[in-house]
């Protein structure tokens, strides 16, 4: 249960449990009927009781003014131990409690240590001063008992106030420690809640918000008291006192009627003020709807400006992409023209070289034919000479003799191996080398040399003839290919020239398109300027309307009645909402201005980027054509 509700329940329990008793016993002394005005600053001492006869407009009673002392009277019952529902050990809760206690003490004018730093770890003296100050706020007539220690008195007072949780005297001996201060801080906050609740309860009761049932009950009690006093005076025979009692009763009734009439007039005036306030609030709501419409219009203008800015951005991006594509196409055309010029130059060089090499090719062909004739003649002479025939016969005899020697050597080798004479490590060789070495390798080399000598001239001459013939064919093919390449390069050069003409035409069309884009950008810039002027006018009008609304709200807030707390809270809430909406409108207008500035910057960049550059490579294109 919250602290306020707990304090309220305990206060109501104390008030209902100690209602004064009315008896019908005779009295020899007359009772005085006095009218006791109530006020929020009236407090009954904690140690005294006083009985008054009240005939006010709110309650008829012979009541005991013991609003707090009925809980402070000694009781034989011990306070019921309850489980602590508050998180007194939580650091965040302790911090918030310290801040609240410091704020309450400062508002009440406490002259001691009331800062959050001092109350976070208070000394024993600071705690005693703060507790004494709070108890005197609860009852201004309360004083310290010089015969008792403060710790004992503090514990006894909280027991009499029926504080639901026990307070340790050991904790009061060391107040500022980390484990003793949170429970004591919670007790002080409970005392603060009790003071605030008591003030609210007394204020409401003094304003006249008493039920009809309690009013009737008070009137009956006054009647019983009057009957008792009148009967006592009748028995005593004191007629003068009886007349005085009757006069006091009539005066009390007249006072009650006057109070009821004044209360009725006050209620009517408050009703009229509330109706006027409702009408003014309705007017404020109408002006608020106008401000909301203005805000919606401003938002529409902002959206339109944003769409226009996006369209300008897309146009700028499209122009940039088109310019990049055309620039790339022009660069590619220039590169193709350069390659075509290089190919034409290479073709012309090859043709001129072929013309220069034509006499040398013819001379080589004639030399090759002469060499072929000489080679054929020499081959015929060699084959027809006697030396060639003898050499051929000697080579044939040598080859036959060599083959016979090789066969005999192989027969000897097989016989020596059967007799175990070879190799030198054999059984019957006794370390002697009986291997027959006929120089087969030398014979083979001699035979190969004779074969090479007999066949080297003719193959070489054939190869020379074939090489000369091949060289002639290659020269002829090179000349034909050079002629074909020259013709193809001439055709390619014509195609390149036509492509260059097309590129020149494209560049001219691109320049014309850039000029049109520049004209459109200028028109867009002018439109943006007009939109910016219109948006600025709308923003100024919206600001003026917001200022007028704020002035109206300030005037309305000044006209509000301070006693009407609920209407004041509603008006304050509406004012805060209107202020928030005004702030949102200003932010929207600032955003619109930022968009307009960004659009102007984009238009400036667009103008800077679309100025027509000089025609690219015009001299090279004319030279290529």
From TrEMBL:
Residue span(s) of domain Kinetochore protein Ndc80 CH: 64-196
Basic residues compositional bias, start-end: 56-70
Single GO BP term: attachment of mitotic spindle microtubules to kinetochore
Keywords: Cell cycle, Cell division, Centromere, Chromosome, Coiled coil, Kinetochore, Mitosis, Nucleus
Coiled coil: 500-527
InterPro entries in UniProt: Kinetochore_Ndc80, Ndc80_CH, NDC80_loop, Ndc80_sf
Matching Pfam families: Ndc80_HEC (PF03801), NDC80_loop (PF24487)
Cell location: Chromosome, Centromere, Kinetochore; Nucleus
Residue stretches of biased makeup (Basic and acidic residues): 384-400
Top-level lineage group: Eukaryota
Domain Kinetochore protein NDC80 loop region: 408-520
Sequence ranges of Low complexity compositional bias: 1-11, 34-45
Residue span of region Disordered: 1-89, 316-335, 384-403, 529-548
Reported function: Acts as a component of the essential kinetochore-associated NDC80 complex, which is required for chromosome segregation and spindle checkpoint activity.
Subunit structure: Component of the NDC80 complex.
Name of the featured protein: Kinetochore protein NDC80
């Amino acid at each position: 249960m919250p602290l306020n509700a707990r304090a309220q329940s305990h206060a109501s329990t104390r008030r209902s449990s100690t209602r004064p008793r009315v008896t019908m016993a005779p009295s020899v002394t007359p009772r005085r009927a006095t009218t006791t005005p109530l006020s929020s600053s009236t407090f009954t001492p904690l140690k005294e009781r006083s009985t008054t006869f009240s005939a006010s407009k709110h309650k008829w009673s012979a009541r005991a003014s013991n609003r707090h002392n009925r809980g402070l009277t000694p009781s034989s019952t011990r306070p019921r131990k309850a489980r602590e529902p508050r998180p007194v050990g939580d650091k965040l809760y302790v911090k918030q409690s310290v801040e609240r206690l410091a704020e309450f003490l400062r508002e009440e004018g406490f002259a001691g240590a009331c800062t959050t730093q001092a109350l976070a770890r208070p000394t024993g003296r600071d705690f005693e001063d703060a507790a004494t100050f709070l108890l005197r706020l609860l009852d201004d007539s309360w004083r310290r008992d010089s015969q008792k220690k403060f710790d004992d008195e503090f514990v006894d007072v909280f027991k009499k106030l029926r504080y639901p949780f026990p307070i340790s005297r050991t904790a009061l001996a060391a107040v500022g420690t980390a484990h003793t201060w949170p429970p004591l801080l919670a007790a002080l906050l409970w005392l603060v809640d009790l003071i605030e609740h008591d003030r609210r309860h007394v204020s409401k009761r003094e304003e006249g918000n008493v039920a009809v049932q309690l009013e009737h009950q008070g009137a009956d009690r006054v009647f019983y008291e009057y009957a008792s006093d009148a009967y006592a005076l009748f028995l005593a025979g004191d007629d003068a006192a009886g007349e005085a009692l009757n006069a006091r009763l009539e005066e009390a009734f007249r006072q009650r009627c006057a109070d009821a009439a004044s209360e009725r007039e006050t209620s009517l005036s408050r009703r009229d003020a509330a109706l006027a306030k409702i009408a003014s609030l309705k007017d404020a709501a109408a002006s608020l709807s106008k401000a909301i419409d203005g805000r919606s219009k401003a938002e529409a203008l902002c959206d339109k400006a944003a769409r226009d800015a996006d369209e300008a951005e897309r146009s700028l991006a499209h122009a940039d992409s088109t310019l990049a594509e055309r620039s790339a196409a022009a660069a590619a055309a220039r590169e193709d023209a350069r390659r075509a010029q290089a190919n034409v130059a290479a073709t012309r060089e090859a043709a001129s070289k072929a013309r220069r090499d034509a006499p040398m090719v013819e001379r080589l062909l004639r030399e090759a034919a002469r060499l072929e004739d000489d080679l054929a003649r020499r081959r015929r002479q060699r084959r027809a000479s006697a030396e060639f025939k003898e050499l051929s016969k000697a080579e044939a005899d040598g080859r036959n003799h060599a083959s016979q020697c090789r066969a005999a050597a192989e027969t000897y080798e097989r016989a020596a191996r059967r007799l175990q004479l070879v190799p030198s490590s054999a059984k019957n060789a006794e370390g002697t080398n009986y291997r027959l070495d006929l120089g087969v390798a030398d014979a083979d080399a001699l035979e190969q040399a004779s074969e090479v000598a007999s066949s080297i001239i003719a193959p070489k001459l054939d190869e020379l003839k074939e090489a000369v013939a091949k060289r002639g064919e290659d020269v002829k093919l090179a000349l034909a290919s050079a002629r074909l390449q020259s013709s193809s390069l001439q055709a390619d050069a014509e195609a390149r020239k036509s492509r260059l003409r097309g590129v020149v035409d494209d560049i001219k069309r691109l320049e014309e398109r850039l000029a049109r884009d520049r004209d459109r950008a200028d028109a867009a810039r002018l439109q943006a300027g007009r939109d910016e002027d219109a948006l600025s006018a709308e923003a100024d009008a919206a600001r003026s309307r917001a200022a007028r609304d704020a002035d109206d709200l300030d005037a309305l807030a000044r006209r509000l009645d301070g006693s009407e707390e609920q209407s004041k809270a509603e008006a304050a809430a509406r004012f805060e909402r209107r202020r928030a909406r005004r702030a949102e409108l200003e932010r929207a207008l600032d955003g619109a201005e930022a968009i307009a500035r960004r659009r102007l910057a984009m238009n400036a960049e667009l103008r800077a980027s679309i100025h027509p550059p000089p025609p690219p490579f015009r001299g090279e294109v004319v030279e290529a054509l």
